[in-house]
Design goal:
The structure holds two protein chains of two kinds. Chain A has 33 helices and 40 strands. Chain A is an alpha/beta fold. Chain B has one domain: Formate dehydrogenase/DMSO reductase domain (Formate dehydrogenase/DMSO reductase fold, Up-down Bundle). Classes of the chains: A alpha/beta, B mainly alpha. Chains A and B meet through strand 31, helix 27, helix 28 and strand 35 of A and helix 5 and helix 10 of B.
Chain lengths: 984, 474
Amino acid sequence: MPPLTDRYPLPVLGGPEPWRSLEARAQEEEGTSPEFPPGAEAAPRGVSRRALLELAAFGTAVSGLAGCFRAPNEKVLPYSRPPPEFTPGVPHHYATGFVLDGYVRGVLARSQEGRPTLVSGNPSHPESLGAAGAHEQASLLGLYDPHRARAVRHRDVPTSLARLFEMLRRRAARTDGGAGLRLLVEPSASPLWARTCAQLLERFPEARVVPFSSTDTGQAEAGARLALGRPLRAIPDWRAARAVVSLDDDFLSTAVGGLRASREFIAARMPPELNRLWVVESRLSLTGAFADERLRARPSRVPLIARGLAAEVGRVLGREDLATLAGSGPDLSTAERRWVEGAARNLAGHGARSWVAVGEAQPPAVHALAHLLNAALGDGTVRCVERVLVPPPDAGALSSLVEDLQAGRVDTLLITAWNPVFRAPTDVPLGAALERVEDAVYCALHEDETSARVSWSVPTTHPYESWEDGRAMDGTATVLQPLIAPLLDSAVSPLELVAAFTGALATPPYARLRAQWRAHVPPPESFEDAWERWLAEGIIPGTRLPELRVPVDASAVLAAVRRLPSPDEGLELHFVTDTKVHDGRFGANPWLQELPDPVTQLTWDNAVWVSPATASRLALSRGARVRLELRGRAVEAPVLVVPGQADDTLTVPLGYGQRLGSPVSRGVGFDAQALRFQDAPWFAPGVRLSRVEGHHDFALTQEHWRMEGRPVALQTTAARFAARDDSGLERLQAPQAHLYPPTPTHAEVRHRWGMAIDLHRCTGCSACVVACQAENNIPAVGKDQVRRGREMHWLRIDRYFQGDEHEPSVITQPLMCVHCEYAPCEYVCPVAATVHSDEGLNQMVYNRCVGTRYCSNNCPYKVRRFNYLEYNRGGPLDRMYRNPQVTVRSRGVMEKCTYCVQRIEGARITARVEGRDIRQGEVRTACQQACPTGAIVFGDLERPEDPVSQLHRDPRHYALLNHLGTQPRTVHLIRLKNPWEDAG
Amino acid sequence: MSEPLPLAPVLADPLVVHPLLEERRTDAQLGEALLRPVLTKPGLGYWALVGLCAALTALLCVAITVTLVTGVGAWGNNIPVAWAFGIINFVWWIGIGHAGTLISAILLLFGMKWRSSVNRMAEAMTLFALVCAALFPLLHLGRPWKFYYLFPYPSSLRMWPQFRSPLTWDVVAVTTYLTVSVLFWYLGMLPDLATARDTAKQGWRRRVWGLLSLGWRGSARHWRHWRTGYLLLAGLATPLVVSVHTIVSFDFAVAQLPGWHSTIFPPYFVAGAIFSGLAMVLSLLVPARRALKLHAVVTQAHLDALARLLLVSGLFVAYGYVQEHFFGWYSGDPYEMHAMEILRTGPYAPAFWLVFTCNVLVPQLFWSARLRTNPAVLWAAALLVNVGMWMERFIIIVSPLSEDFLPSSWRHYAPTWVDLSLLSGTLGLFGLGFLLFLRFLPPIPISEVKALQHELAASEAFASDVSTREGGGR
C-alpha cells in the first residue's frame, strides 16, 4: 500500500533486463532472460508498467506507407495476456510529474490494472515531499475527460493526422529561414522543450518562439533583473524564517512552490516557538487567513506600504538609504503605520532569520525592494537560483506576435499554450489575428475559443499519456513518463508537432528524451540503470540548481521605488488567479469546479468580491448583479460580499466564463479577462460599477459564516495558551460520562484507529478534499445539486469568520466523519446499515442501506452524504478512473468517510501474508497523504507511541461537540496565533 | 317519506341543550333515509368534486412515478434537511387518522351516545388518512424497493431490523394501527352492510354487499357476539390512539437534535394528532351533513361536542407549545435555545406565527356557544386548524434540521413541484376515497342510530313516566 515499498525494490533493477522491442531483444540476448520459473508460487517481484512499454511492439513495417511521417505508433498490449509479474488487484505506483506554470511537481500515480486511478505526491521530489495539491490530484480526471477533443479539424472539417503532418512537412521544407514561422508556447522548464526550441531556432533562425502566460507576467523577473542584475529567483528558507512579511503574496496556496513553502513554513511554526506572519493583501487569501498580523489594503497601495516598511526597517537597522524612502510620497494610515512599524521591528529583530515575500501582481520595483530588504536583513546578499523557464516570460511578446500576424508576416503558427485567445489581454486582438494565418495549428485537450479561430485544431495527448521531462523550481529534473496508452488515436503530443520542424519527426519523443539525458549519466554507471532509477524515483539526481549569493544593487532599486506611482483612488479592479481553475485550464475538471473555494466556499462560479463596507456603501448584497466597466470594456457579474476584503477593491478571479470548450466549463462564471489590459494585468483603477437587474444564485457549500459563539473551530494566541488562559479547553477534552456501556467487541482488539487534525497546521488548501474524492470514488454532482445542498464531499473544510467583519479572524477546519465511540447515527438506523467495528470504525454498509436518512439527521457533525440521485452515471471513461477497491454507491444510499477502510484492509492483508502486525504508519488515509503540512494524522490509538496517540494527549487537542458524549475518534487541535502585541 | 315524529325533549340533562336526533322516525324510515346517499344517483356537484380529486390523484401518480424513477432527489430535501415534506405529510396524515379511532373507540368505551352518528365517517376518514400516510415512509426511502428490510422477516441473511431505532418501532406501531383500524371500521359496518344488502335494488350491489356482510342475519346471537367483539376491538384500539403518535414522536424525541430531543414530544404529539383529526372530521362532516341532508341525525349537538373537543385538544397543543419554548429557555443549552429562537425569529418564523394563530388563537372562538353550533364558522376554523397542524409539523421537522450544531452545515429548505404535488395529490386521494365511501357504503351507522333512537325513546318514556307519576302524586 504505501507507495515507497512499491517503488523499491526498483521495478526493473531487480527484474529482467529491459528491452525495447521484440526484435531488439532477440538480437541482444538469446535465452538469458530470467523467465517466470516453472513451479514458482508467486510472480517475481519488480513489476512495472515498464513491462507494458517493454512489450511495446515497435513495428517498423509502416515505413513504406505514404503520408505517414510520424514516428510509428507504439502499442500497449491489453491485459488479455497479462505480464507474469502482474497480480490482478495489486496496484503499482509510477513516479512522474505534473506541470503547472512551467514547473514540475513530482507525483506518484497509482495504477490499477493498467489504469491510473490516483495521483499523489512523490516523497522524493523536493517540490512535493509526498504532498499533492488539488490540481495534480484532479488532473487524473482530465485524463479521462469524455469531452476531450477527438478529431483533427482543418477549417472545422474533420481530417486526418496524415493531412496535418503532410502540411507540417510542407511548411518545414521552407527556405525563408523561418521568417513566417512562429510558436506560441507556455514558458516551460523542460530541458527537452528547451532543446527542441533551440534546435528549431538553429534550423530556422528567423522563427520566433513566443512565450505566453497569463499567470506569470514577468513582474518578479523584472524585479530580479532590477535588483540582482539577472532574472534570478530568490529562495526563501522557510524553515529558518522567524518573521515573514508577505506583500500580497499567497505563498501558502498550493500553486507553484506552495506545497513545499507551506510544509516548511508550518514546520517552523509549531509551538512553543511560533514564527510570525505579517501579510498585507487586498483580498482574503489562505495566506492572509493564516496571518498573525494581517493588513488589508487596495492592491495599488501595497507598493506604498512596502516602501513604508523599507523605510522603517532602514530606520531600525540604521540604513540611511532605506530610511530616506519615508520622506516622500503619501502618508500611511494609522493602521498601516502600526502594521509597518511592528513588521519592521519584528523583521529587524530576527535579521537573517526573516523574509519578505512579494506576490507576482506587484510591480517590479516592489519585488526589487523585497530583494533589497532581504539582503539588508541578512548578510547583504540574496539566496537565489537561476530561472530555468524557456522562453522566459515576456508580457509584451504576445502583442508583437499579433502585430506580425496582422501584418501577414506569419504563414505557420504552432500553438501549444493553453487557449491563448481566451486568456489574451483584452486589448490584444489575438483571435481576429489568428484567422489571418494560413496554417495556424492549435494543439489542445478541448475544442475551445482558440480552436474556433485557427485553421488546424489538433487533439493533444494528456501529459499522462506521453513522454516528457521537466524541472522543479529548484531545478530538480523529472522524467514524465506516460501512465497509459493515449486514449485517443488522433492525439498528438505538442513535442511531436514541433519535432516536425526540427527534423526529428521520425524519432519518437521517448528516444529523444533518452538521447537528451544520456549525457547526464556519470561514466561508471550505465545509462539504462540510471534511467530506470530516475523513472522509479521520479527525480534525476544532480540536477538541482546551484544556490547563488547575489548582492543587491541598492541605488537602482531605490531609484525605481521612488518612481513608483501613487496609489489610486476610487474603485479598483483586482485580478487573481483562481484557486481552483487556475487561469481557466482546469475549468473542464468537475472535481475542481466543485471544490469549494477555500475562502468563499463558492463552487462552479466566480464572483466579484466586495468588502462589507463597500457593499453597504454601494447597496450590494450577495448575489446582486453588477456591470463592471473599464476603458470601454464591460462585463456583467454577480457580487459576493467577503469579509476581510480591502475596501473599494473589486477582486475578480480569472479563468471563468468560457464560451467554448468543454461543456463542464462553458458558461460557468463570468470572463474577468475581458477587463484585463496589457498594461494593467493585475489591478486597474477607474472601474465603473453599476447595478443591473437580476439576482444570482451562488452554489455555496457553506452559507453560514459565523460560529455563533460555539466552540467549533478553536484558535487562541500562543501567549494565552502558554499561560493556560483558556480554561474552556478542559471541558472539551474530558470524555463525558455515559450511561451506556461501550460498544461490545467480539474479539481482543488489536487496533483502535483514530485521527487527529491539527488546525494549527491547516492552511485550508483543500488538497485533502480532492484526495478523498479521488480515493473514494466520490462523484461531482454539478452546480444545481450543490445549490440544493447535496454536494457529496466526505471531507469538507469549514471556514469560519470571527470578530469584526471588516478585519475578521479566519479559521479553517477540515471535518469528515469523526467516528464517534458512541455514534448517534448507529442507534437510529432501522436496518443496521451503519454499525461499529471492533476497531472503532463507524462503518457504512451500502448494501443494507435503504436510505431513511435518519442517520444524517442525528449526526451532529452533518458529515454524512446522501445519494439523492444517481450521481455515478457516466460512460466507459468515467468508470476508468474509479478506485476498484471502493464501492461505487448507487442512488438512495448514505455514505461518509470510512477512514479509508480499504487502505486499512489492504495493510491488514499485506501484514497477514507477511505474518506480522500492521506497522505503525503503514496505513495512511488519502487526506493525510495529500496534506502538505501534515495537519491530518491517522494511526492506531492502541500504540501509545503512534503520532496519533501523542496528538490525542496533546494539550491542544479537543473533541468537537464534546458535551454530546459522542467521544469522537478524530480530535482537533486548536490553532495558535502569534500576534505582535504579545511580543511587544 | 312519512310524517316526522313529534318533537320531545331528548334528555332530561339540563347541560345538554341540543337534541341528539332532530326527529323520530320508524326504523324502516330511518334505515331508508340513511341509506339514501348510497341508493340514489348523485348530483353534478358530487361528480365535479370526484373529478377534481381524481385529477389530483393523477397528479399524485405522476409525482410518485417521478420520485421512483429519478430518486428521492426529485424532492427538495438536502443535507442537513434530510427529512421534509415526506415525513411532514406522514405525521400529518397519521395525526388525522387519530380522530376516527378516538371517536369510535374511546367515546364508545366512555358511553358517549353522540358518537353514533359520526363514527362511521370518522373511521372511514381514518382509513384513507392512513393510506395516504403509509405512502410516505415508502416513497421517502432512498431505495424504496428495499422497504422490506424494515420488517422482521426470516431472511437468509439472518439480518433483523435494528430494534433500537424508532423507525423500526414506527413500522410496528403504524402497521398495527392500520390493521386494527381496518378491522374496527369493518366490524362496525357489518350490520349496515347487511341492511344495504337487504335494501339494494341492483343484483350486483346485493351480491357485493352480501359478500361483505359475511352472512349477517341480525339474530340475537349475531348481535351479542358483534357487541362483544366491537367493544373488545375498541379496547384494543384505545391504547393505539396514544401509542401511535407517541412512537411517531419518538422519531424526533429519540434523536439528539436540539428542537427534537424533548420529553414533551409524546403527549404533545398525541394531543396534536387528536386536534388535527378532529379538525379534519369537522372539515368533512360539515359539508357532508349539508350535502346529504343529514341534519336530522348529525345535529347541532354533534357539532357542539366536536367543537368542545377541538377547543380542549387545542388547549393541550397550546400548552405543548408553551412548554417546548419554556424548556428550550430553561435548559440553558445554547443549542436548544437557538433551535427555539429561530422558530420564533428565524427563516421559518412566518410559519411559526401562522401555526400559533391557527392552532392556539382560532380554537379560542369555541368558548362561545353560539359559534360552536355555527357550521360555517366551525368549518372555517377546522380548515385553519388543518393548515396550522401541517405547518406545525413543517416547523418541527425542518427548522431544527436547518440549523443544528455546527453552523457550517446550516442550510435552509425549499420544496420542489414534486413535493407540492405529493401533498396535494394525497389530499386528492383522500378526498376521492371519502367521496366514493359516501356513495358506496352507508356513511351513517344505521343500526347504531336506530339503537340510539330506541334508547332515547325508552329513556324519554321512563322520564315521562316518572314525571306523570310524580305529577299524579302531587
